[in-house]
Amino acid sequence: MEIKITSNTRNELLSRSELAFTANYDGATPSRMDISAKIAALQNVPVDTVVLSPLQSRFGQRAVQGIARIYDSVEAMTATENKYLIARGQPKAEAKEE
Fold first, then answer.
1. Which among 57, 7, 68 has a CA at the least distance from the CA of 33?
2. What is the H or E stretch that residue 77 is in?
3. How far apart are CA 69 and CA 58, in angstroms?
4. Closest CA to 22 of 58, 46, 50
5. Per-residue pLDDT at 82
6. Which strand ranges, in their side-by-side order, compose the sheet holding 2-11?
7. pTM, entire model
8. Residue 60's pLDDT is what?
């Protein structure tokens, strides 16, 4: 998967950077966790401070466009972002065995 950053804007009021990107891929559409891990590696930040929203793909193209918000700290992220957006980027909890 290759990620091209199309814009990088700093938002000091919310303590975050806002990245617009295009991800080109082969095979299956990459998961949100894969995309956020790749962006975190490119920007040298922890994965748990990256939030993806929205992601858009078009039929027949092997590319995804989206916006990544990279926060300075987890506290700044939880104060600003909705809980459901934070939960989307996390691995699913294992089902309890009875």
1. 68
2. helix 74-80
3. 22
4. 58
5. 86
6. 2-11, 16-24, 63-71, 50-57
7. 0.82
8. 87
- CA 37 to each of CA 12, 32, 75, 80: distance values in angstroms, whole numbers, following the listed order: 23, 8, 19, 21
Q: Give CA–CA dist 27/24, Å, rounded.
A: 10
Q: Could you report the average pLDDT of every consecutive run of 10 residues in the chain (98 residues)?
A: 94 93 91 91 92 89 93 91 82 58
Other CB atoms within 10 Å distance of the CB of residue 39: 21
Query: How many whole angstroms separate alpha carbon 91 and alpha carbon 89?
Result: 7
Residue 98 is predicted with a pLDDT of: 53
* Amino acid identity, position 45: V
